[in-house]
Each structure stands twice: as C-alpha cells, then as structure tokens.
C-alpha cells in the first residue's frame, strides 16, 4: 500500500524515460520490433504510445480539470496515433523525444504546486465516468509501469521457443496469452 | 521470433543491471519494499534473487555442463537464500553488487567463446530433466526480463487503490492476482 503523493508519483514518472533508455537504446530489431501477435505493441510501439500520452493524454486532461470549465469531459484518446506518426522513425529518436516531453511535463506539473483541494477536482473520462485529478495522476504512474512490464514481457516472449523445458518456471512467457493491452 | 544467439542474449543480460538501477536506485521504501502479498517478492527481494542467480544458478550450471563430467545434474536452487543474506542491506548496495557480479559473469561467458556444438551440450535440471547449455542461457535472459516485468507490476500494484475507476484500463493491476513467481 502506497497512499498517493505527488512526490512519490514523480519518483516513478521521472524514472521511466531513463529506464526504457537503459533497456532499449541500441538493441537490435529482434528485441525492439517483436510483438505478442497481430495488433499488439512492440517495444518500439510502446515508446511511441508513451509519447502520444505526453502530448495528448495526461497533461492535457489535467489542464481540462484545472480549467474548471463548464465541461470537464476529456477528449477520447487515440491508442494508435503513433502508428502513422512514427513509421519512419528510429527507436533511439523516440526514446530521446519521450525523455524531453516527459521532462517538460514534469516541470509543468511541479510548477502547478497542486494542493490537496486541487487534486480532488473532478474530470470526466469519456468511458469511465467521473474521476479526480489525483486518480488521473495515479493512473499515469501505473500506466508507465504497466507498459514497462509489457516491454519486458514482449521481449521475453521472443525467446520462448529457445528455453525448451523451462517454460513452466518462467511465468512471464505465458502471461497475456490473449493480449490485454 | 528471435532465434538464439549469444550476442542477442548478451544484449539483454548486459542491460538488466543498468535498467534496474534506473528504475530503483534511491526510490522510497513504499516502492522498493511493497509486495503482491505474503511470500511474494518486493523489488528489493528481486534484486537479491538476481544476485543469488549470479552466484549459484546460471554460470555455476553452465560450468557443470561444460565440465562434461559423469553427472551433469544441477544443484537445486534456493529461491529464498537472499532473505537471510540481505536482511541488513540497502537496495543501493544490492544494485551495485548485482551490476558487478553480472559484469564479471558476462566477461567469463564471453571468454568461453562458445561454439554451436558446446551450446548443444547437455545438462540435467533437478526437476525439469534434460536441457542444453543453449536453453540454460536463453532461460537466463527470459528470467531477467520476467523479474523486470515483476518489479514494474509489483510497483504498479502499490497504487491500485489510488487510480479509482481506471483499474479495467490498467491490466497490470490485475495480472497475477494469484502470484505465480
């Protein structure tokens, strides 16, 4: 159990770009471009998706909440925007871009000096309904960690045929047999 | 699909210590010491377990295979050795120790200049039965990635109560409801 705090959230949010960089920069395409099957994300896709999140999801939604306008309903989020946007990019340029966007967004977040009252302000998720700014920021943290876990899992699965009888001792190989994210 | 190669394996094995360092060094205890429930690993425990692997699992088992003795049966591996060993250690000292052990083990592995014939040499896992050196090394890679995914998942779950209605959109929160590793 870890009660929400902005400081604890930023501990994770600030580490994600350097963690992904450590894991992925200059790895070969068999690791970077492998997936779990049709319509699932490769590590390359995950970094593109995280960039989309910086540009169109978390901070833009926080701004909608903080504007306290008549509507606090979020714009729907396009999970596949990155497919077209990044078709000719390298993984390395995406990692660098993600780190820059994240750094700027965390500076902005910290500049807001959010109070407990502001963290309780309401937003409206287009399909999940009423949420608070605090829940939005907590979801941002968990979203990062979920995609980090996904990158590691997708990479692991590229070696599934190579481990022979070890499969039952390596549960990551049989997680998400029907991909969920 | 990613056919086994020593070079591709080392791409991952060499990145694991710096990746875990980026994610975990100097994070607070709520992230470092949280678990998924009784008898499951915290991120701190995972680093201790990976140290045990360097000292007692992967390279020692590779040596047994390469010795080509009358018995190629591996010693059983103690998954909880780290509990007693590391009770008074800091996460930071474990991260540093893991990086040093891994670096030395990868130097040793590369010094062996393993041939395809050597990679096909047999070992005997105490419960899984006959395996090859190639499968052992592939399992080492997948084991790293599985525990990296686990660290991210365990951290994510510390914020499960904080995300409110976002749970169904964050599948990492409901992975391994009955912990498997």
Structure description:
Two copies of one chain form a homodimer. Chain A has eight helices and two strands, in the order αααααααββα. Helices cover 56% and strands 4% of the residues of chain A. In chain A, 45% of the residues are buried. Chain A has 181 residues and is mostly helical.
Q: Strand portion of chain A, in percent?
A: under 5%
Q: Major sheet of chain A: size, sense and barrel closure? A: 2 strands, antiparallel
Along the chain, the helix and strand elements of chain A come as: HHHHHHHEEH
Name the strands of the widest sheet of chain A in spatial order.
Answer: 1-2
Cα distance spanning the termini of chain A: 24 Å
Helical percent range of chain A? 55-70%
Radius of gyration of chain A: 18 Å
Look at the helices and sheets of chain A and give the structural class.
Answer: mainly alpha
Specify the oligomeric state: homodimer
Brief descriptors of the model:
homodimer, mainly alpha, two-stranded antiparallel ribbon, 8 helices, 4% strand, elongated
Structure described in brief:
2 copies of one chain form a homodimer. Chain A has about 180 residues and is mainly alpha-helical.
Explain the layout of strands and helices.
2 copies of one chain form a homodimer.
Chain A: H1 6-13, H2 16-24, H3 29-32, H4 43-67, H5 81-85, H6 91-111, H7 116-119, E1 122-125, E2 129-132, H8 133-157
Antiparallel strand pairs in A: 1-2
Helix pairs in contact in A: 1-8, 2-6, 4-6, 4-8
């Amino acid at each position: 159990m870890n009660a929400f705090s902005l400081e604890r959230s930023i501990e994770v949010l600030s580490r994600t770009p350097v963690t992904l960089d450590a894991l992925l920069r200059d790895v070969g395409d068999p690791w970077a471009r492998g997936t779990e099957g049709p319509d699932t994300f490769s590590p390359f896709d995950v970094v593109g998706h995280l960039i989309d999140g910086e540009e169109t999801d978390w901070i833009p939604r926080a701004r909608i909440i903080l504007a306290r306008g008549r509507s606090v309903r979020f714009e729907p989020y396009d999970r596949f925007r990155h497919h077209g946007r990044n078709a000719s990019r390298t993984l390395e340029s995406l990692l660098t871009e993600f780190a820059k966007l994240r750094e700027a967004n965390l500076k902005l977040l910290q500049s807001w000096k959010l109070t407990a009252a502001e963290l309780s302000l309401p937003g409206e998720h287009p399909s999940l309904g009423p949420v608070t700014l605090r829940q939005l920021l907590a979801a941002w943290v968990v979203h990062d960690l979920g995609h980090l876990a996904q990158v590691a899992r997708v990479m692991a699965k590229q070696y599934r045929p190579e481990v022979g009888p070890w499969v039952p001792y390596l549960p990551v190989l049989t997680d998400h047999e029907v991909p969920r994210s």
